[in-house]
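REQUEST FORM: STRUCTURE PREDICTION
Request ID: SP-0412
Submitted by: Lab K.M.
Chain count: 1
Length (residues): 176
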Amino acid sequence: MAKALRTHPFDLVLAIRLLQPVTTLAPLAEELGVAPSQVHASLKRLAEAGLLRPEGRATNVRALGEFILTGVRYAFPVVRGPLTEGVPTAYSTAPLAAVVDAIDVVVWPAPNAPSRVKGFSLTPLYPKAPLLVERSPDTYAIVGIVDAFRLGDARIRSMARAELERALGRRFSEPS
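STATUS: Completed
RESULT:
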């Protein structure tokens, strides 16, 4: 009997990163702070889930957008924690920080990050996510938007949707 597909949180990050051009697995893995074998396994899961286009390593933008909008908060719920130092995420980072008037800050715990701030901790989609700030800023921006969906607040999700549509561009509404 075939093993059931189980998409991992890192798969979502990889799908977001694959919105940009890539060369080989090794530099991609280094950029994301994981082993090449982890990227390879994730690519297989993304293909099985329909989050990659059939012709290669390009993200199926429409499917990705649909998953983020409707499923990410259920598949990968956020875990809030105590005050800590870390990397801003969700509504505490661009582009959402400019449109959300929040009294608190949310961060991925990363006490040694150069751009750390104090805020309430959120469990990131994968342990090395704080590295995205320096290594993959475009990926970091979209993963921050995804965290806004994971938080579950309807008002913030509404603002995050507009930013997600901007980030994914015209490709978001194209047929898959």
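NOTES: Residues 13 and 143 are 7 Å apart (CA to CA).
Reviewed by: T.R.
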